[in-house]
From TrEMBL, chain A:
It comes from Methylobacterium cerastii. This is Ferredoxin. The lineage of its organism: Bacteria, Pseudomonadati, Pseudomonadota, Alphaproteobacteria, Hyphomicrobiales. Gene3D superfamilies: 3.30.70.20. InterPro entries: Fe-S_cluster_ET. Keywords: Electron transport, Iron, Iron-sulfur, Metal-binding, Transport.
Automatic annotation (TrEMBL), chain B:
Residues 416-454 are annotated as: Disordered. Keywords: FAD, Flavoprotein, Oxidoreductase. The keyword Oxidoreductase applies. Its cofactor is FAD. Transmembrane segments: none annotated. Residues 10-314 form the FAD/NAD(P)-binding domain. Residues 429-445 have a biased composition (Low complexity). SUPFAM superfamilies: FAD/NAD(P)-binding domain, FAD/NAD-linked reductases, dimerisation (C-terminal) domain. The gene is ddmA1. This is Dicamba O-demethylase 1, ferredoxin reductase component. InterPro entries: FAD-oxidoreductase/Apoptosis, FAD/NAD-bd_sf, FAD/NAD-binding_dom, FAD/NAD-linked_Rdtase_dimer_sf, Reductase_C.
Length: 82, 454
């Protein structure tokens, strides 16, 4: 019934990222920490990849911590039950 | 309530609000069983990208699954529609006949896109609505097929975001709305005029003050044109109906709660009300489906479809579900939404309904970079920024405390404050006010009946 992959160490399972864009103030620190995963377009539109590859985990963790308003949330472990 | 042998908590609606509610139960120390039931086969996903990057093809529709706590430890029942609630037996019924017992229930069933009426062409092929992940995937596939002209009905946030995406793909677009400018219900025509200019620059054919009466199909049942109230005809082989949303309360019809197509009524503590207006101590609601008295605006009953409300109210309801009856805290919320379209970042706070004045307090409409504040009887009630989001928190604070209008004067970059009439269309009366649009837009928009044509 569920479509979520179950295996934590499966390299194919993407990370899960969401940004609270009400909170985001466009400091763009995430874009420096994880270029490409986060990108500012135009004057202040933040584009981000909500399902980046696992290999970017370290960079995205830095982006999470670098965000001055703590607007980024990442899930690295599937943490699935049933 | 915390033992694993009790039925535990059921969250109906595997949504943003439902996920945040379930997570907040754990964050607040609940160790019992949590069951999350959803009618879609998907884990909770984020809607804002659907009308933007998914339509444009930058993201796959299945990329927007939301992060969740690793220790959520929920029982997921996905692809299962809930069809009934028996408050006295403390059970819900599923479409497959199963009956689930609960100790407490959190209703986060949200809303669905308002469909085009069947009798005026609603069943023709290539007519789409955009609300869920599957809607976005279907619409994206149809856009890839290269329609010769797209007609978008309704210039709320979803309609405008879709228009922006379709133009970025080089597809011809006609956008129809009953109002003078896009976003007229949410921002007024004075500010909406800026988006009208963007539409023009982007090559969208905008038809203001227009209504579609019916769609006509070809021999194969695919839409080919729209007939308008002014007797004009618009040729279009793909239609996006963006007329707001209807709350998912049909399953509560026989539940004896105060529920209708515009929401499930709650008290300030997110407890649902029964038909007599008494709060149900074990049934809470949050997110798009919930209609509650908002203290900041005189306890007006509203439902808010914004992303931020789903998150905050889901969490708040969960907190109260675990609290004793004498510690039910009121939900205090300042609505906020964002959208991006035509390269502009739009962010707003507060409810603009009833505004009698709007002022550009930073920037200018001509530059398409500005912050506008809406006032009512001398108080600041809402604000919107176009590519000037850095100012918004200061104005949000002023709105939260009911500050004077305009709240900030003599700022170093304020040349001159230009003000005017907001230009809101006359209100439509529905049962309870709705601040809606959709999380698809991130966002908001429109009262759910905003651009209703039919």
């Amino acid at each position: 019934m569920t479509l979520v992959p179950q295996t934590i160490d499966d390299a194919e399972v993407p990370l899960r990222v969401v940004v609270d864009l009400n909170r985001c103030q466009g400091y763009a620190q995430c874009c420096f920490a994880a270029p490409g995963v986060f990108d500012v377009r135009g004057h202040e539109i933040l584009f981000y990849d909500p399902a980046p590859p696992r290999a970017r985990r370290g960079e995205i963790e830095r982006a999470v911590h670098a965000c001055p308003v703590r607007a980024i949330r990442m899930q690295a472990e599937p943490g699935v039950t049933q | 309530m915390s033992g694993v042998d009790t039925p535990g908590m059921i969250v109906v609606g595997a949504s943003l609000a439902g996920l945040h509610g379930a997570e907040a139960l754990r964050l607040n120390g609940y160790r019992g069983r949590i069951t999350i039931v959803g009618d879609e086969p998907h884990r909770p996903y984020d809607r804002p990208p659907l009308s933007k990057h998914v339509l444009s093809g930058e993201l796959a529709a299945d990329a927007t699954e939301l992060p969740q706590r690793a220790d959520l430890d929920a029982r997921w029942m996905l692809g299962q529609a809930v069809i009934g609630l028996d408050r006295h037996a403390h059970t819900i019924g599923l479409a497959d006949g199963a009956v689930l017992a609960y100790d407490k229930l959190l209703v986060t069933t949200g809303a669905r896109a308002r469909p085009w009426p069947v009798e005026s062409g609603g069943t023709l092929g290539n007519i789409f609505t955009l609300r869920g992940r599957d809607d976005a995937a279907r619409l994206r596939a149809a856009l890839v097929a290269g329609p010769s002209r797209i007609l978008i009905v309704g210039a709320g946030l979803i309609g405008c975001e879709a228009a922006s995406c379709c133009r970025s793909l080089g597809l011809p677009v006609t956008l129809i709305d009953p109002n003078l400018t896009p976003l007229a219900r949410s921002l007024g025509t004075w500010v909406g005029g800026v988006i009208a200019d963007c539409l023009k620059d982007a090559g969208v054919t905008y038809r203001p003050n227009a209504q579609v009466l019916r769609f006509e199909g070809d021999a194969t049942g695919r839409v080919v044109r729209a007939h308008l109230a002014d007797e004009h005809v618009v040729e279009a082989d793909l239609v996006i109906v963006a007329l707001g949303a209807v709350r998912e309360t049909g399953w509560l019809k026989a539940a004896g709660l105060m529920a209708d197509a515009s929401g499930l009524t709650c008290d300030a503590a997110c407890r649902t009300l029964d038909a007599d207006g008494a709060p149900c101590p074990d049934i809470y609601a949050a997110g798009d489906v919930a209609r509650w008295p908002i203290s900041l605006y005189g306890d007006r009953l509203i439902s808010v479809e914004h992303w931020g409300n789903a998150v905050a109210q889901g969490g708040h309801a969960a907190r109260n579900m675990l609290a004793p009856a004498d510690d039910q805290r009121p939900y205090d919320h300042l609505p906020a939404f964002w959208s991006s379209q035509f390269g502009i970042n739009i962010k707003a706070v507060g409810l603009s309904e009833g505004a009698d004045t709007v002022a550009i307090v930073h920037g200018s409409r001509a530059s398409r970079r500005f912050l506008a504040v809406y006032g009512r009887e001398g108080r600041s009630i809402s604000a919107v920024s176009f590519d000037q989001a850095r100012w918004l928190p200061a104005y949000a604070e002023a709105i939260r405390i009911g500050g004077a209008f305009p709240p900030i004067r003599d700022a170093s970059d304020q040349d001159r404050i230009v003000s005017g009439l907001p230009g809101f269309p006359p209100p439509r009366r529905v049962s309870g006010s709705q601040v809606s649009g959709s999380q698809v837009s991130g966002s908001h928009v429109s009262r759910s009946d905003e651009a209703r044509h039919a």
